[in-house]
Design a protein that fits this description.
Elements lengths: L16 E11 L2 E14 L5 E9 L5 E11 L4 E8 L3 E11 L3 E13 L6 E11 L2 E10 L5 E12 L2
Bound molecules: protoporphyrin IX containing FE (HEM).
């Protein structure tokens, strides 16, 4: 049985549920690509929200990037997030958010990006997430592999199942 939502997670309610959609990515060092994406924001009754994400390449349906993390609310305008990637990259973020009942916007800037010895070097990540009318869009920018901070991804997803 699903436990009740922890009160500290109330500002994160707009995120909760199963989201499906698609996106595209680019970076100066790689070929551009298109992907389909599934995201789940869920809770276990504790003061955090869980985040799981997986993507597939549109051209051949093969698994692409995936990541998992946790979000916590700090106060009425600030939240924090940690994300781990199987490629050896870990991001910690502080995000400022605005939520007015109709739309929800959170702008995450990395506090630290840690990488395992064999991972590609990533220095900085920003993630801008907007939700309006059960549609989630995001942009992700990064400074990585010696390139200046710039856009890597944009995507649009629909909420297909509430929490
Ligand atoms: C929807 C999520 C994402 C998708 C679909 C995606 C996809 C890709 C693809 C297809 C490549 C090129 C092939 C490869 O090296 O595997 C790539 C490269 C890369 N991505 Fe992403 N990526 C995603 C998220 C991220 C995130 C969150 C980061 C870092 C925080 C990141 C960092 C990198 C780096 C460092 C490279 C290597 C660039 C190079 O080798 O020159 N990606 N990504």
């Amino acid at each position: 049985m699903q436990p009740p939502l922890h009160q500290a997670c109330l500002p994160l309610v707009p995120l909760l549920g199963l989201w499906r959609g698609s996106g595209n990515g680019h970076y100066p060092t790689i070929d551009s690509f298109e992907y389909s994406e599934e995201i789940v924001f869920a809770h276990v009754g504790k003061p955090f929200v869980t985040y799981t994400q997986k993507t597939k390449r549109v051209s051949d349906g093969q698994p692409l990037h995936s990541e998992q993390g946790f979000l916590r609310v700090v106060d009425s305008t600030v939240m924090e997030m940690v994300i781990a990637q199987p490629t050896g990259i870990v991001e910690t973020h502080v995000g400022s958010f605005v939520s007015n009942g109709e739309s929800f916007i959170v702008n995450f800037d990395s506090v630290e990006v840690a990488t395992t010895p064999s991972a590609k070097p990533v220095e900085q990540v920003s993630r801008l997430v907007r939700i309006e009318n059960d549609e989630l869009t995001y942009d992700l920018s990064m400074a990585a592999v010696g390139e200046k901070f710039q856009h890597h991804l944009e995507a649009k997803l629909q909420r297909v199942q509430p929490d």
